[in-house]
Amino acid sequence: MRLKLVAVAIAALAPVVAMLFYNEVALRHQRNEEVRTSAAQAARQASSEVERIIEGLHALLVSVSAMPSVRHLDVQVCNDALKSVAESIPNIRTIFVAGIDGRPICGSMAFPEGVVFSDRDYFRQTLETKDFSVGTYTQSRLSDRPVLPLAMPLMEGDTIKAVIISGIRLDWLQNRITERGVAPGNAVTIADGKGTIVAHVPSPEQFVGTVVPEEYRRLIHAEQPDVIEITGQDGTARILGYRPIALPSNPLYVSAGFSKPEAFAPIDRATLMNTLAIIGGALFAFLAAIFIGNRFILAPISRIADVMEKWRSGQTTARTGMKGPDELGLVGATFDRLLDELEERRRQNQEAEEERSLLVRELAHRVKNGFTLVQAIARQTFSRSDPERYSSFAERLAALAGTYDLILSREGSASPVREIVSAALRAHVSSQTERIRLDGPDVVLPAETALPLSLVIHELATNATKYGSLGSDNGTVTIEWRHDDGRVRLLWTEAGGPPVSTPTKKGFGSVLIERAFPSKAQARSHADYRAEGLVFQLIFSIGEPVAEGEVDPLSRDVKHTSQT
What we know:
It catalyses: ATP + protein L-histidine = ADP + protein N-phospho-L-histidine. Pfam families: dCache_1 (PF02743), HAMP (PF00672), HWE_HK (PF07536). Its EC number is 2.7.13.3. It contains 15 helices and 18 strands. It is α+β, with helices and mostly antiparallel strands.
């Protein structure tokens, strides 16, 4: 049935998918041609604007060369005239006249001492060609700013008398290109004959002054304009229209790149909408097929689901009653057998839990009777001969009995750390003020961490009495704790006892220490068996502080964890 439903849906959707695929291919091809045409046109427009700027400055230098003060190299009058020209033309920084030896004669600003320009490429090119020339990206020696230098010879007959030099402000050129506006993802690049970028939109601060990548440098001096597809330095796939350098009219390389993701965004959106429409149609087809097969598929599934919901609500006797020969009938019958097994296991677990609780109560009763018997024997043996020692023994025995009673009952209440530690130690050392030192703030622990801490301290004290410092007359134990950001750090330090060595295997006590705390306490512990005595560190979380005296019984199903 499932295969039949899938086959029907596929047969209905196949023509629609084929039509969508055809339209997608045709639209993308058409859009690609449109973008290529737009990229070539944008590059042509940007190149034309650059040509107009260069041509305008060429005309300016021609006009300057015709000024009498410049032609006669009258320094003072020439300085004033060129200063006036530079102040009225916003796209240049300076304009000056240099002799054929490269030393400045007059200009729109004062010259640094000893500055010469004979080593500049544009200067030598002008002397060689006796014609107007455009240089490359240059750091000006007069303004210390990047410029695109321009030079034109000042002729006297057929002889070069001097060279008139100026430079396009690259910040002005950048602003001019930026004002034209570039769509998101697109880019415009202007570079000189050496491949150095003199203007770039967007992110000029990242690209201006850098060199065009080696793989695209061949485009700068290509034979003719063209359109190609590239991946830009910013990682964007673009359709690039470019205009190579073509002297003398076009001295700069210009390219305009159109972002493919942006250019194809409308088509991508249309594709997404068509895809969603197909998915919607597929869902409708499947729903119709399911509706037709409701009697054979959905009804049995709903019956099984109803039984599962009844089980979740506590009706453990609910069954599907399905026995049909089809696949779903077999699933329902198997499900019924599974529920029968689960019900039987639940009953067995309940009986086992009741038996365990009875055994725990019996164990608690027998432990109490054992302590009572020991106390009675001790009282009959030496209460009259040594009352003081008997009293101390009886107190410690009672404290030990109280600790075991707490362990077996698995009940506790919120208590301060100091009281928990003192109660756990009372059974091991009668005079704690001399043998044991406690140091820490008043931190109140909830019941779920108070009992595990009591167990750990009791186990540490038991080990210290059997093997460590509390088994020696001069042995001491220092217990310090700190509370920070909902976590308690406790440090147990032994001293004055017999030499300590690392145990070769873990006993039950070590396992108890590691697993005493519930998982939400995120407890971690570390034992350092130093020769002078054990140093044990315990860190656990207590969450929100619990008010002193507030009782919170431990859950019967606490899960234990350890991190050592």
